[in-house]
Amino acid sequence: MHLSDKKATLSFSDGSAPIDFPVYQGTVGPDVIDIRKLYGQTGMFTYDPGFMATAACESAITFIDGDKGQLLYRGYPIDQLATNCDFMDVSYLILNGDLPNAAQKTEFDSLVTHHTMVHEQLHFFLRGFRRDAHPMAVLTGLVGAMAAFYHDSTDITNPRHREVSAIRLIAKMPTLVAMAYKFSQGQPSIYPQNNLSYTGNFVRMMFANPCEDYQVNEVVERALDRIFILHADHEQNASTSTVRLCGSSGTNPFAAIAAGVACLWGPAHGGANEACLQMLEHLQANGGVEKVGEFMQQVKDKTSGVRLMGFGHRVYKNYDPRAKLMQQTCKEVLAALGLEKDPLFKLAMELERIALEDPYFVERKLYPNVDFYSGIVQRAIGIPTSLFTAIFALARTVGWIAQWNEMLSDPDYKIGRPRQLYTGSAVRDVAKRR
Ligand code: ACO
């Protein structure tokens, strides 16, 4: 970051002297006011619940321009990455800062491929869960438990340990998600197969069984690979900030990523794709396209508590660029699987059409987000709704681990410790009780 010529001056209405704060410029995006000395100089904190205007860190990984609807990983636009690269290219880029050349790609693919198997005893750990447990509950447990299985990569001060744990997490996440799925189905886990791509291997671990040969469908593989690319990172969102905050205490990477998985589970974040598909299925079961108008009235009525899931975003105040790519993939997958007439897709298109014209959505700048179409794609592929957020967690792991690593390498890194505006009782005495 660069120090700007500009300074920010804070003045007070009570006649106290104004104070200057340095302003820093990034490569693109808003400047930031460095208020680190505010408390020392004034005895005051800033107040910003929900981090509406607070940059909590410096980062060189991902940039979003919410007004333009632009998303860049390491400077590259998401649409160019989604159409020219595979998830391993993008993972390498996010971790290392640049796209791999051919030799680097071969080496990275091989490194990840050769870490996909998990410690056999993790299967016993998995068996302790109830069969009907939510996959996100299982995944939070399995990722956290990795710290107990891979002690040799938990020294966060050792760059080699950090590298090994990053590869382990990226490589083993598909295996863990597929294990959780197979367990819920009462089926045996399918072990990874090294001649397949990262995504092809995941498809096989999800849908093969030990009794038959299995051919990975290329359209399905490509669609999932795109889902992984689109979800790989998204700057300082809730789960990434959780990973950073959790990791800032110096905890091991598996514990920090497990915290990210837990945060992602919520319906306002990663759980939105599951909630969106449930909304579409509910609407389809209760009148379908005919009832869209009535449903939209409910959405706009603040007392109903109903939101149009898959719409709106804290940062995008324009079309989420990932939603456009997802809509394209959705069409491709439905056509390839002979599901062009899928009623949920029709319903989603109709909801989108109405919302984009409705003043309620237009005035509030509410557009479809990535989750609006990703649920339809995953459902068409055969992924159960309850597993959608786990797929998101799988894809986001590379972003989480890159952001965690970036934080630990930052000379300004400190334990995260927000302040508060206290509005509880002032000091008081306990009355004599006996
Ligand atoms: N349906 C109806 N109204 C909405 C929606 C929606 N999906 N989203 C926002 N609004 C309205 C709010 O009621 C509010 O109206 P008001 O100004 O009249 O009070 C206004 O738009 C602003 O909304 P906020 O909730 O203040 O915006 P915020 O930035 O806090 O929320 C969020 C963003 C949580 C994503 C919200 O849009 C939402 O709940 N969307 C549905 C869930 C969803 O799709 N989440 C996925 C996010 S993307 C991701 O995690 C991959």
Label this structure with key terms.
Citrate Synthase, domain 1, three-stranded antiparallel β-sheet, 3 domains, globular, 434 residues, 6 strands, 18 helices, mainly alpha, binds acetyl coenzyme *A, Rubrerythrin, domain 2, Cytochrome p450-Terp, domain 2
Report on this structure.
Helix 6 (135-149) runs antiparallel to helix 11 (253-264) and helix 11 crosses helix 18. 51% of the residues lie in helices and 6% in strands. It folds into three domains: 2-55, Rubrerythrin, domain 2 (Single Sheet); 86-268 and 386-409, Citrate Synthase, domain 1, CATH 1.10.580.10; 271-381, Orthogonal Bundle (Cytochrome p450-Terp, domain 2). The chain is mainly alpha-helical and 434 residues long. The chain contains 18 helices and six strands. The chain starts with a strand and ends in a 25-residue tail after the last helix. The protein has a three-stranded antiparallel β-sheet with strand order 1-2-3, with no helix packed on it. A three-stranded antiparallel β-sheet has the order 4-5-6. The model has no long low-confidence stretch (mean pLDDT 95). The chain binds acetyl coenzyme *A.
